[in-house]
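Render this sequence as a predicted structure.
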Amino acid sequence: MTTLKGSELAINGGTPVRAKPFPKWPVWDETDVQALTDALRSSQWGIGGGAVEKFEKAFAEFQHAKFCSCVTNGTAAIEVAVRAVGVEAGDEVIVPPYTFIATASACLMVNTVPVFVDIEPDTYNLDPTKIEAAITDRTRAIVAVHIAGCPADLDGITAVAKQHNLKVIEDCAQAHAAEWRGHRVGAIGDVGTFSFQSSKNLNSGEGGACVTDNEEIHQRCWSLHNVGRIPSGQWYQHPLLGWNMRMTQFQGALLLNQLQRIPAQVERRTANAEYLTRQLDQIPGVRPMRVDQRVTRHAYHLYMFRYNASEFGGLPRADFIKAMNAEGITCSSGYVPLYKEKAFRNPDVYAAAFKLASRPMDYDKVFCPVCEKACAEEAVWLYQAWFIGEDHRDMDDIVAAIGKIRKATTR
């Protein structure tokens, strides 16, 4: 096993490639302050204030959808979406294991059963060719996560869903403005969920949304997040059992202003990411993720590449990441397989859902080899804020750091 030798490496006391910080996130100015001040002075901070409703209309249009309902966070959006498409307690929902825990935990929170299906090795998105083998008579929906902001294979996923009469929920938490075949994600399936948590490309600290082209699903989303009310009903009329998951007017006002920045930021991220990909393609042992030709816009919430230790003299990925961080390039290894999380190893967590399920589910026995390899050996993450600089010098530092480490491990 290779160790990191060489006095030129920052981890050994050498001069780091990068001393200055990457661009700060979030980006804001006095127009955001004014938007929040206007919401404050309106004295209507909750339902009926107007900013949330304006943002819902603007965001639906931005994502090429007909309808949008804003909620408290991205996790809540998934819970609402699962119920809105008709999934019931004890039903099964297919999810990828390479994603944030909310994709699967939201299903359990409404007493449905997450069934993990492996990912594609070169995109880390759900593999459509492996879905059918996981379908049972209790399968009701597929959650397609657009990991890192790169749309999953929606042609393949929706084809399987149509064949088996399943609903498609798009988890777009990392995919604001991403496009599949020229259409922005979210309403390509039956319903799409978004997060506006502080790390996201569009954020208000917390918050989320459900978008759809289906009016019936939209009405259910609206009702479920608004304590079971219906738009045409009375204040104390509750035909459905719902949550109070409403967004505040402060969040709506901030998001409405932040939305104006998205087009320019998307262009900047794309230009920097594509430049970085061209440079990394020249370095053995570093493989940028594949972008399907049908992806007409990658959101680049993350920039991920696959690390091959054999091209770095056998240097373990963990040591590579430590060396990168020492060089001033903050990066990480990302997720662990979701089915290995303690929450999914505790039967008490999912007892209510499984009591109604048609088959036992033992997550201790789940094994998705592609996900396992990605989590244990390959994946390296860079963060979206690193890609909003106005020129390519930030990318050049990333390339220089990788080249410096490879040179030290292969000479």
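Summary. The mean pLDDT is 94. The longest helix spans residues 262-280.
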